[in-house]
Amino acid sequence: MKLTLRNTAAAVLLAVLGLLLGAPAASAHGGPIVLEVSGDGGHGVNVVVTWKKDRHPVRDTVIGTVSATSSDGRSFGPVKLVSAPEGQNLYRSAQPLPTGEWHVTVTAAEPSEAKETVDVIARDIAAPEQSQAAEAPQQLAGAPVRAVAATDSGGLSLTTVFVIALGIAAAAVAGVVAGRQLLRRKQPDLRL
User: Fold this and answer.
1) pLDDT by residue (tens digit) across 46-58?
2) How far is residue 107's CA from residue 35's CA, in Å, rounded to a whole number?
3) How far apart are CA 143 and CA 148, in angstroms?
4) What is the pTM assigned to this prediction?
5) Phi, psi of 79, rounded to the nearest 5 degrees
6) Do the beta carbons of residue 91 and residue 82 sit within 8 Å?
7) Is there a domain that residue 88 lies in?
8) Which of 4, 100, 102, 129 could staple 68 via S-S, CB 3.0–4.6 A?
9) 44 lies in a domain?
């Protein structure tokens, strides 16, 4: 069976699309999840949800609650766990914790059951004007203030590297097939 350039390109395109759409990756997920619970420095509770098996982000909807008890006997919740706009697997409490020291418990029901308890301190965050005023004496008069953003040094995920490598391999195969077809067309017919 001869493979034409069109058939080869179509097969490569389907393979790359299958990887990009997550067909192989989706089958690797499922099972238990891990909840990483922390305070946000203010009155919020953040929860990062990953699959226990491979620590990949849980992109499924997570259904859960946040409840807490304070060191002075007050109780909070349970309140709904809601998706945060900053990330696909980042959740937070639907309501802020009141000021104080809290023993926070996050319980997830979906996509699998999980529970995590941590201690969190809820407090007011200093207003931006106060923090800039504290830094002002260190600045030169009239010098512009420049912010330096932290960068993520995590690098590329294994899936991203695999997809890039597959794309390069697909391009190489397509190039070889196209080159062979061009050579066949340019060879003279020596039959008598």
Assistant:
1) 999 999 999 899 9
2) 9
3) 15
4) 0.52
5) -120, 155
6) yes
7) yes
8) 102
9) yes
Looking at residue 177, its amino acid is V
What CATH number should be reported for the domain holding residue 62? 2.60.40.10
- The identity of residue 132, as a single letter, is Q
Which residue carries 């060879």 as its tokens? 187
* Domain extent at residue 69: 26-123
Both tokens assigned to 70: 């304070």
Can you tell me the distance from the alpha carbon of 109 to that of 16, in angstroms, rounded to the nearest whole number? Answer: 34
Cα within 13 Å of Cα(85), Cβ side: 0
Could you tell me if residue 84 is inside a domain?
A: yes
Residue 130 domain-assigned (yes or no): no
Number of domains, the chain:
1
69 close to 103: Cβ distance less than 8 angstroms: yes
* Interval 118-157: pLDDT, tens: 999 999 887 666 545 455 444 444 444 343 333 343 455 6
